[in-house]
């Protein structure tokens, strides 16, 4: 189930509020002795979080599908940087990290129960009751798997939102009367304290001095599947730029952007606007921004982190409250 971005929490008796955890969205499947973890983009996650596979394998419930968030607690706080380190090709490295800082699965939905019965057609109100009963009976006491808190009290949800930053990334609001809305955004809304967007890196520019990356060129998809250039970010750490440059150069491939591209007529254009390298649409980055107008970020955005758990195709104009159709040509 996907979430629609909003500026304010929806109000009414049909809404349930939950913290938005700063982690990787995950579906956890168990069928007898087989346990698998799947990312929001449909990629397997089990090899990166073997300790969670082990924990889920020990539950007395032998059939289930859970929807939740993988997080990594360190010294009482959640660390997204530590989470990113897990996406590593070496199994020995992953095992070392899992032993040093074990991950946790925070669960907020039960989609298939112990009888292999699908619950996705049930309203959230009923599914949540079944999740609470399932967790009470089957979840371990050492809290490596736990249920996310929820409330219908708007005042409590606003307190969560006011304290966002760190463990809590914002607040999720879900319609209690709807089934699991797989493939659309009708039943779930996300509100963040800070405006952020997941963008495709469609190209980059070299710095003025030295052949290292100076800025990443950001893109968002419209409904027609065209990738439009919407801005840039240049706030990466200097120490990371040489390694990042090699990674980007290995992905150089035209056209980069298939909709509006850098270098076209624009009031933001500079003499260097046409000097950029196109990339295959493989990398996703999360950035913080202030305003999105005229089909692009008004100012340069702040680089927050890489999002290997997101598909490039999930980076759409809808995130920024813009029409999902092509932006008007910029003059």
Q: Give the terminus-to-terminus CA distance.
A: 38 Å
Calculate Rg over CA atoms: 21 Å
Overall structural class, as computed from helix and strand content, comes to alpha+beta
The poorly predicted ranges are 264-273, 326-331
Helix content: 10-25%
Shape: globular
Number of strands: 19
The number of helices is 6
Q: What is the string of helix and strand elements?
A: EEEEHEEEHHEHEHEEEEEHEEEEE
Model description:
This protein has 331 residues and is α+β, with helices and mostly antiparallel strands. It contains 6 helices and 19 strands. The strands form 5 sheets. Strands 12, 13, 14, 15, 16 and 19 form a 6-stranded antiparallel β-sheet that branches. The chain has a 5-stranded mixed β-sheet with strand order 4-3-5-8-9. Strands 1-11-10-2 form a 4-stranded mixed β-sheet, covered by helices on one side. It is globular and about 60 Å long. The chain starts with a strand and ends in a 25-residue tail after the last strand. Residues 264-273 and 326-331 have low confidence and may be disordered.
How is this structure best summarized?
This protein is α+β, with helices and mostly antiparallel strands and 331 residues long. 18% of the residues lie in helices and 31% in strands. The strands form five sheets. Strands 12, 13, 14, 15, 16 and 19 form a six-stranded antiparallel sheet that branches.
Task: Reconstruct the topology from this structure.
Elements: E1 4-6, E2 15-21, E3 24-31, E4 34-39, H1 50-58, E5 63-71, E6 73-74, E7 77-78, H2 80-85, H3 91-100, E8 104-112, H4 124-138, E9 145-147, H5 154-162, E10 168-175, E11 188-191, E12 196-206, E13 213-221, E14 227-233, H6 241-249, E15 277-278, E16 284-288, E17 292-293, E18 296-297, E19 302-306
Parallel strand pairs: 1-11, 8-9
Antiparallel strand pairs: 2-10, 3-4, 3-5, 5-8, 6-7, 10-11, 12-13, 12-15, 12-16, 13-14, 16-19, 17-18
């Amino acid at each position: 189930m996907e979430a629609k971005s909003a500026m304010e929490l929806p109000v009414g008796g049909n809404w349930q509020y939950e913290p938005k955890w700063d982690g990787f969205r995950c579906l956890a499947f168990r069928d007898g002795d087989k346990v698998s973890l799947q990312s929001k983009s449909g990629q397997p996650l089990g090899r990166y979080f073997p300790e969670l596979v082990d924990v889920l394998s020990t539950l007395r419930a032998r059939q289930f599908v859970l929807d939740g968030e993988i997080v990594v607690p360190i010294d009482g706080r959640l660390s997204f940087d530590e989470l990113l380190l897990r996406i590593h090709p070496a199994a020995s490295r992953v095992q070392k990290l899992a032993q040093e800082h074990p991950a946790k699965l925070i669960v907020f939905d039960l989609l298939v129960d112990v009888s292999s019965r699908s619950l996705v057609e049930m309203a959230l109100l009923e599914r949540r009751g079944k999740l609470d009963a399932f967790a009470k009976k089957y979840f371990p006491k050492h809290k490596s798997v736990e249920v996310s808190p929820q409330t219908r009290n708007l005042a409590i949800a606003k307190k969560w939102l006011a304290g966002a930053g760190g463990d809590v990334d914002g607040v999720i609001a879900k319609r209690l009367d709807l089934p699991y809305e797989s493939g659309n955004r009708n039943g779930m809304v996300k509100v963040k304290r800070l405006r952020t967007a997941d963008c495709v890196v469609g190209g980059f520019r070299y710095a003025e001095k030295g052949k290292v990356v100076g800025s990443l060129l950001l893109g968002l998809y419209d409904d027609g599947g065209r990738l439009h250039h919407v801005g840039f970010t240049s706030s990466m750490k200097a120490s990371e730029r040489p390694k990042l440059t090699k990674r980007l150069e290995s992905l150089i491939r035209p056209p980069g952007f298939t909709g509006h591209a850098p270098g076209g007529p624009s009031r933001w254009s500079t003499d260097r606007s046409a000097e950029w390298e196109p990339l295959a649409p493989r990398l996703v980055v999360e950035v913080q921004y202030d305003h999105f107008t005229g089909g692009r970020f008004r100012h340069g955005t702040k680089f927050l982190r890489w999002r290997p758990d997101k598909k490039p195709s999930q980076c759409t104009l809808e995130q920024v409250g813009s029409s999902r159709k092509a932006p008007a040509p910029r003059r």
